[in-house]
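Serine aminopeptidase S33 domain-containing protein: structure tokens wanted.
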Amino acid sequence: MILVSPAMAVPSRVYGTFSSELTAAGFDVRVVGRRGFEPGDAPASASNDWSYHDEAADIADAVAQIDAESPERRPILLFGHSLGGQLAAVLLSDPTSKAADRIDGLVTVAASIPHIAHYPPGYLAGDIARDVLRRTDVEGYWPAPGFGAPGAKTLMREWATMVLSGALPGDHAARPIEIPTLAIRLHDDMFVSDSAAGAFEALVAPSYLSSWTYGPADCPPNGSLDHIRWVKSPAPVVAHITDWWCAPGPGCAETES
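Answer:
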């Protein structure tokens, strides 16, 4: 079973091809949608707020639902794309989380700690983060057409604080990630520098970490290495996940996923 945690402001329908190709590779797939961006969801507003921990709790609820549906223990692989990877880290670093103990492996694509120190001076995210802090304080949420908008006040302020301070929400020193982890970087990702990706990967205990950079030589003619658009032609990523998860070693599942 693969649980997919999407990128910021990206609805689950965007992962349709990715989910279909994972299914063809033998996985059951569920997408844990981003709050406010699924059909029927109330969007973020001054009266509708949530945090990183709230969205991490949505992942935990999905894990509990899987266990409630079957008396047999099913291996669970958590997949996090960009913000979805950060949410996975928040959940897996929580020493009180039962769901964290239930997850067997982690895959991330384009996950990072986007601290401004990891980017050249004048990097746009710093200005966006400062604007988030100002506008959410006045308006009670992050309104469109801003980056990732409409965004919940608390979550966006946590994101902005991470950009300016380098601190991912939660106490990550309390519990390093100690499950098999595959961190996939995208070659020349305009949003993720090598050092920002490395800062995220440092949350994983080294003996559990594998990494791969999806580069031009791997990309099909109709594919993309873009931070979001890679998901439209995801065959190389699906193949790498499958090879890693099914190979001998720490990523090997002993039972069907």
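The domain at 2-246 is CATH 3.40.50.1820 (Rossmann fold). Residues 250-257 have pLDDT under 50 and may be disordered.

Cheers.
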